Amino acid sequence: MEIVKAELIGFCMGVRRAVELAYKVIEDYKGSKIYTLGPIIHNPSVVEELRGKGVNVLDSDFSVLDSDSVVIIRAHGVAPDELAQIEASGATVIDATCPRVLRSKQIVEANVASGKSVVLVGDKDHGEVKAVSGHSDKVVVLDPHLDYSVALDVKVPVVLVAQTTIKHDEFYKVYEFLKQEYSDVEIVDTICPSTEKRQEALLDLIGKVDAVVVIGGKNSANTRRLAMTVEDSGLPVFYIETEDELSSDILNYNRVGIAAGASTPDNVIDSVVCRLVDIGGCYE
């Protein structure tokens, strides 16, 4: 069995920055109660490793915070109302929001301020979408996987933006629909280039292998989309978080591809490759 890695794999810039900042906070704020607002990234192994170093996940209960607390805003960003509650507690805020998410937020704020209707294409329950749309109740969120062919309560001009981790075909499908419904639709492509490049690298990999192992958190939107791309191609896909989830069925394939989400650390990818090598794989 030959093992082939995708050309682009593992941490993206925003995720790497957030994780590195979390470890810096551990060193700089020894003795403080350190939290991340939600999981720092959508990868259980990273979250557990940080928990072992005293970093806990903060959900919606801000009553645990005080002036001795430090809260790290994850790469997804934070909605203004949540940020206000955290700051009111007296906690120190460390902002690890991805620069591309900050750009999306700024685009939304500027267009809302100018009186335009803003439609945000993305998963409504995703942390980034909640953070960006939370800056105005005038932002309409459209999930590209649901039926959005219903009348929208928006007025022209309409500005269309995207969750940074969705696929371009999902985004432009919504754009084509809106163009038929409204006379003035402006598109602002806020999808992270890394997302598109990962999809391109995966498509290239798919053409070279018999099956693909996709590594990443089951709660990771971008990793799920990688797995969906493999499924759509017709190739078998093994969607796993760690090497322990590898099935013996993988031995049925001569060439196995390795892809990983933007929140999958290098050591987890390496562990999967090592397990494949142990069971008879060959990797160069």
A few lines on this structure:
The chain is α/β, with parallel strands linked by helices and 284 residues long.
Explain this structure to me?
- It is a single chain.
- The protein has 284 residues and is of the alpha/beta class.
- The chain has three domains: 2-11 and 193-278, 4-hydroxy-3-methylbut-2-enyl diphosphate reductase, catalytic domain (Cobalt-precorrin-4 Transmethylase, domain 1, 3-Layer(aba) Sandwich), CATH 3.40.1010; 13-98, Rossmann fold, CATH 3.40.50.11270; 100-187, 4-hydroxy-3-methylbut-2-enyl diphosphate reductase, catalytic domain (Cobalt-precorrin-4 Transmethylase, domain 1).
- It is built from nine helices and twelve strands.
- The protein has helices spanning 13-28, 44-52, 80-88, 99-113, 127-133, 168-181, 193-206, 221-233, 266-278; strands at 2-5, 33-37, 55-58, 69-73, 92-95, 117-121, 139-142, 158-162, 185-187, 211-215, 237-240, 255-260.
- The protein has a four-stranded parallel β-sheet, sandwiched between helices. The protein has a four-stranded parallel β-sheet with strand order 3-2-4-5. The protein has a four-stranded parallel β-sheet with strand order 7-6-8-9, sandwiched between helices.
- Helix 5 (127-133) links the parallel strand 6 (117-121) and strand 7.
- Helix 7 packs parallel to helix 8 (221-233).
- The mean pLDDT is 92.
